[in-house]
Specification:
By secondary structure, the chain is α+β, with helices and mostly antiparallel strands. The protein has two domains: about 1-160 and about 315-320, 3-Layer(aba) Sandwich (Aminopeptidase), CATH 3.40.630.30; about 170-285, Gcn5-related N-acetyltransferase (GNAT) (Aminopeptidase, 3-Layer(aba) Sandwich), CATH 3.40.630. Helices cover about 30% and strands about 30% of the residues. It contains nine helices and 13 strands. The strands form two sheets. Strands 1, 2, 3, 4, 5, 6, 7, 12 and 13 form a nine-stranded mixed β-sheet that branches. It has a four-stranded antiparallel β-sheet with strand order 8-9-10-11, with helices on both faces.
Amino acid sequence: MDYRSYVGGDEEALVECWARTLPKDQVSLSRFVRTTLLDDNFDEAGLVEARDAEGEVRGFVHAVAVGIPEQLPPRPADAGSGGAEGWIPVLVVDPAYQRQGIGRELLRRAEQYLVGRGCTRASVSAYPPGYYYPGVPVGRYPGSRELFERSGYHNISTVVAMDLSLVDYEVPEVVAKERWRLEADGWRFGSPSVEWYTRLLRLCGSFSEDWASVVRVALRHGASPDQIQVATHGDEVAGFAIFGAFLGCADRFGPFGVVPERRRLGLGNVLLHETLREMAAQSLHCAWFLWTGEDDAAGRLYQRAGFEVTRRFAIYERALEGTGAA
């Protein structure tokens, strides 16, 4: 195999290799360009290709070096700290060329790239600005998890994707009563007007700057206020939910959050169902999102609303200090 970095013109060959390797998770050329090549942090040196003697792409890996985000799942004590954050959003090897060490070599080169840019750990999880999966698909492609585990990566958590059919959806009576109770206490729910945008973005940023970026970009690209629900009390914005925030995914739910000090009041439940009601009103047939913890508070809230688990993903990471990758 010949290993080299991406150069312009390789895009179609990369997408074709992806299609052979991940047939249940096809990606279009336009989505690959939008999500990977046009990412603010994209660097040609971080997209490493494996080509055979005829010059055909037989595998590739994408590594990204960015600042440390704050919204990740908890890190194990031995994961290291400081430095830049390293991500590996994609690694594929043509099925006909697997089990020949190509995946291991691509991974080694990805780590070499990350260490060279000051990264102290590599995460195989949801790279916030744009990702295809929130981790390694569980039970979908044999050998994928084993590749990372043999290379020293630790499975720090497993998350789930969920879907909900909106056919015949209606707001449950118990949620309607919950809203009336909260409104009697001074809470208000609805779509934000322009005067609330800066406060909404500040709230999103309190969870994650990436959430703020997602909502900001959605509004810039013409997202309707009807796609957003907020919970307010006087001048306070305590929670929000949005759908259709990701380009080309009108039925994708989220981000969604309530500030910690206002949780357990029922605000999240009302926001969730008001957003689902609006999605159904816009003739969307389903609501879906890519990840949450199955057994955490959010996961239980989604399940009570009728969401069902459709996929599972394993989040992996590895400390890069002293790996010899430099």
